[in-house]
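> call design_seq(struct)
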């Protein structure tokens, strides 16, 4: 996979906006980003406006969690049919099953960490990795050390050294703790992109990055009931588009950053569309 990492601009988490303000909010001025933010807001509002949400929102949330986990696992190499995910209970028999099990555990855990995220995002990331990599006791929950291999076959970008990875994570955490005025989509996209670019753990980084994206979308208030699973959209858009958009993010160019944010926005819209279909099915009594 090609990359422009050697000449990339500084990552968003380490930039300063031209007026000294919020560097993430400054990304809102990139071409097309404001349109993506508005389109996502409208898509999410449509789901929340559905009459089924007034009576059966818990069911929509549960279904979104299941479908989101399935979509995230698919991007990490375990592309199972939804009914297979519902049917199976053995998630430790092979690599695909372990990936699916990790995705399901992360989906369940994410909702328990919302209140901690804004105060200690690094603690949340460590907890998520501990949950995802429970079968790797010697590595679970701790950042990778220099020289340790990273098991992330989907992502072929050059791996930053541990000092760079840790520094950028600290910068990202400071931005999250400090708050800011950036729309939820922008913050979620940057969190997602940074974790994929840095791969701070020895495994499960893709699953963790997509879970963190959801935590931002939920915790920001954009999708408080977690019914618009972006993971569904990322899977629907496909691996090739996902990796191409990620390359744009890692390049650090305005066009690349805008393209990644737009890609994440489209994923949220598709997740919202998925839940609209579930609402319609419930209304008809077909699900």
């Amino acid at each position: 996979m090609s990359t422009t990492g050697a000449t990339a601009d500084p990552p968003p988490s380490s930039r300063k906006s031209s007026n000294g303000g919020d560097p993430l909010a400054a990304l809102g001025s990139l071409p097309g980003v404001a349109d993506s933010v508005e389109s996502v807001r409208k898509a999410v509002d449509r789901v929340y406006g559905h009459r089924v949400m007034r009576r059966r929102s818990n069911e929509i949330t549960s279904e979104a969690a299941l479908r989101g986990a399935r979509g995230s696992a698919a991007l990490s190499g375990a592309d199972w049919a939804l009914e297979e995910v519902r049917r199976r209970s053995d998630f430790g028999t092979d690599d695909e099953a372990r990936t699916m099990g990790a995705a399901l555990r992360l989906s369940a855990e994410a909702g328990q960490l919302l209140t901690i995220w804004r105060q200690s995002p690094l603690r949340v990331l460590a907890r998520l990795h501990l949950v995802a990599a429970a079968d790797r006791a010697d590595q679970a929950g701790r950042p990778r050390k220099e020289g340790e291999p990273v098991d992330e076959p989907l992502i072929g970008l050059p791996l930053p050294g541990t000092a760079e990875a840790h520094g950028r994570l600290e910068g990202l955490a400071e931005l999250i703790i400090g708050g800011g005025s950036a729309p939820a989509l922008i913050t979620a996209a940057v969190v997602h992109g940074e974790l994929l670019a840095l791969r701070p753990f020895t495994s499960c980084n893709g699953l963790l990055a997509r879970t963190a994206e959801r935590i931002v979308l939920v915790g920001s208030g954009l999708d408080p009931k977690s019914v618009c699973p972006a993971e569904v959209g990322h899977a629907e858009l496909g691996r090739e588009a996902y990796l191409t958009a990620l390359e744009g993010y890692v390049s650090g160019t305005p066009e690349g950053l805008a393209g990644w944010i737009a890609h994440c926005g489209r994923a949220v819209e598709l997740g919202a569309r998925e839940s609209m279909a579930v609402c319609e099915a419930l209304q008809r009594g077909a699900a």
